[in-house]
Amino acid sequence: MTDLVVGDLAPQFDLPRDGGGSLSLAASAGKPVVLYFYPQDDTTSCTQEAISFSQLKPDFEKAGAVVIGLSPDPVRKHDKFKSKYNLTIDLAADEERKVIEAYHLWVEKSMYGRKYMGVERATFLIGRDGRIAHIWRKVRVKGHAEEVLEAVRAL
Asked: Which of 12, 15, 77, 101 could share a disulfide with 92, CB 3.0–4.6 Å?
């Protein structure tokens, strides 16, 4: 299984979302999509990342882009997470990890010498044509949302 690269067609998805309903890549056709993957709601780094994207949501919208956060957490956990931190971005629930695996982000991780499987923090910028325009892997949260916004503006 090879990693996705810039220029590849982005794998399609249709997943349950916070607040009910679903989120799909097809629904955003013709717009740039910032699809960011994160391990878990309500953890320090994941919360900082979600807050950063939420604060910049008006700027992403002005640039014509949609921002979607995706994790394996269930919808009810997303709802609590959004409410607790007043998040404004959309959150998709990939409990079966089908999309996470399609983007090759279910990986072996290590913490304090213990190895386990988990979601690699990554962001994909999908262009108006449905192709991957930029990939950030093993993301460091500080300044990331701003960097992604600059890439959206450069499309």
From this structure: 15
